[in-house]
Each structure stands twice: as C-alpha cells, then as structure tokens.
Amino acid sequence: MHKLNALIAGSTGYIGVQLIKLLVKHKNIKIKYLCGNTSVGKNISFYDNSLKSKKLPKIIKFDKKYLKDIDIVFTALPNGEAQEISKFLLNKNTLIDLAADFRLKKSSEYLKWYKQKHKAVKNIKKSIYALPEFIGKKIKTYEIIGCPGCYPTSVLLPLIPLVKNKSIYLKDIIIDSKSGYSGAGRGVHKKYKNKNLYESLSAYGVGFHRHNSEIHQELKNYTNSDIDFIFTPHLTPMFKGILSTIYVKLKSGFTIEKIYKLLKKFHKKNTFINVLKIDSLVSTNDVINTNNCNISICKTKYKNKIIILSAIDNLIKGGAGQAIQNMNLKFGFKMDEGLK
User: Which pLDDT tens digit goes with each residue over 257-306?
Assistant: First the structure.
C-alpha cells in the first residue's frame, strides 16, 4: 500500500510527541521528517521513551527543500510560524496546523487577539477551520487546514447543534473550562513557576482569553443573532484533559429531554462523540488517551436552565487526534484510522 509522507514541525512539544505516537500506528502514513530547533540531532525517544522501539528519523531543522518529498506537513509550532511555512507550500503539499495560525478568518481579529500581524494574509482564504464533526467533505478542496483549539473543541461540539436548532438563548451563556497543564506547552513550568502547578487550581485569561474569538466566530456561523457569552479557563493540577461546564437557558418549547434527543441525533454518526444519559457525571478520566468527547446534559432547579458537561483529552481530541481526523477526512481514509 502506498503511504503518504509526513513532516512534523514542532515535533518535541507535548502535542508534537502525541501526534507522533498516533501517526506511527496509522497504516497510510510514513513519518519522513521530524523537525525542531533546540532538539536538532536528538532522537524523539529522548522526549518519550515509548517511541524508542519505533524506526523514526532523527530531529532536523526545518528547510523548505524537504517539502518536495512530503505530502502532509503537520505544524505544532508557536503561533506565527506555520504562516511562514505556508508561503513555501508546493501543489502536492497539505498543511495541517495545530496552532492558531489559520483559525481566524480575519487578519484584523488575529492581530487583536494574538497581538501579532498575520504573515500570510493571502493564505487565510486558502485555509479552512476544520472541526471534523461539522466540516464534512468541504475539507477536501483545501490545502491549508486549521485545527480548532482544545477549549473551543470541548465547547463547540455540544453548543453548535443547539445554536443551529435555535433551542437556547444566545445571551448570558457561561462557559467554565478546566484543563490539564499540558495545554500550556512544555514551557508551562517556567511560565507558571510560582503557581505550584501540582497542587493548585488557577484561573487565567479571565474575560479576554484568545479562544473567545474562535468560539464566537464559529457559533456565529450558525445564527444571525448576537451572541453573548463569558468564557473562563483554568489550569488544574493534572497533566491532561479538559472538562467544560456550560450554563445555558432553554427557549420556550424546549425541555432537557428534547435537548438530549437533539444532541443524540446530531452526533449519531460522529464516531468519537458520546452523548451520555441525562444527569450523567462526566470525568476527564473517561476520555484520557482517547479521541472521544463525552457530553452530558444535567438538570438544575430551574426547568428552563441546564448545565452541559463536555470532556476531552486536550492533546488528542483537542489536538493531535483531531489533526489526524482532519487528515483522514481530507484523504478519504477511515475516520478512526490511527485513532482506535
């Protein structure tokens, strides 16, 4: 069987390593190049011992000349760097970015939220924001694929169907999300050296976290009405996993039972989405090391208000697994290939 050649830029970060661990199991992919900066010359097993038995290339510095040997470029780099790589893409290349470089459709929004000018504005139009459960076959016509952020993934999977079906009020949505510290990357221990990561819970980006822009952009695709929500992320003393707790008010005529059926029907064919029974308690432990999203809808003391719980593994469904899902969609592979 012919395999597609892949290059991974940013291969030594938490998401880069997770991506490699999944791709080595993918029967349609050969990892041709692993790229890094400070890690040049090292084996990837230095960063994860479980890869020691795999026949993988040593880490090299990225050079555009490698693109002629490559079908797929995965970029798990700091924001802005995939934009530079996108300028060198050949017709045969597909770029799948796991950072934020091609998530926002307006360069002005990117500047506003990421505090840097977009370096490949012309390529924004050539890119697609790809949450695989909603994008479908449209992905096949794009060569630049922007993977959603981990927090937005956990939020949009339950919310988009409800917004699309006009079942909830779009004002005063409250989103409270908690993530393992791996979501902040390998530099998390330096960045939060005074936070006591292993024993404390910390709110950050309160009111103005950059993922606000992404959540708003994608929800707006499904309604003509204004959307008001408050999103607050937290860093928790666990390595990975995200639990988002979302508070919404139901419109007249909708009950929690109707919302459950709506979500169940919407995600019926989505391999990795599990809509659990009403009032099920959701734990990150149930989704760690999987590409699944577990969703539960819970009652409150008010009949017209419900709580939605959504749990994912931030490095897999919120990162590397989702990138592979998008690749599988793009190239017509089985949806769960490399993700079983």
Answer: 999 999 999 999 999 999 999 999 999 999 999 999 999 999 999 999 99
Q: What's this model's pTM, rounded to 2 decimal places? A: 0.94
* Residue 146: per-residue pLDDT: 98
Provide CATH code, domain 4-125. 3.40.50.720
Which pLDDT score is estimated for 33? 97
DSSP H stretches of helix in 165-266:
188-191, 211-220, 256-266
Structure-derived torsion over alpha carbons of residues 79, 148, 155, 258, reported in degrees to the nearest 10: 170
Alpha-carbon gap, residue 144 to 327, rounded angstroms: 11
Low-confidence ranges of the chain (pLDDT < 70): 1, 186-195
Nearest alpha carbon to residue 263 among 298, 224, 288: 298
Q: Retrieve residue 251's tokens.
A: 């419109």
Check: CATH 3.30.360.10 for 151-314?
A: yes
Q: Are 237 and 198 in contact (CB under 8 A)?
A: yes
For tokens 């391999």, the residue is 271
CA pair distance 266, 219, nearest whole angstrom: 16
Q: How far apart are CA 53 and CA 294, in angstroms?
A: 33
The DSSP secondary structure of 138-174, one letter per residue, reads: GGGG-SEEEPPPHHHHHHHHHHHHHHHTT-B-SSSEE
235-256: per-residue pLDDT in tens? Answer: 999 999 999 999 999 999 999 9
Q: How far apart are CA 176 and CA 69, in angstroms?
A: 44
CB 242 within 8 A of CB 158: no
Active site residues per annotation = 150
- Partners of 97 in beta bridges: 75, 146
Q: Which residues pair with 243 in a beta bridge?
A: 178, 311
Domain ranges of the chain: 4-125, 151-314
Separation of alpha carbons 86 and 144, rounded Å? 8
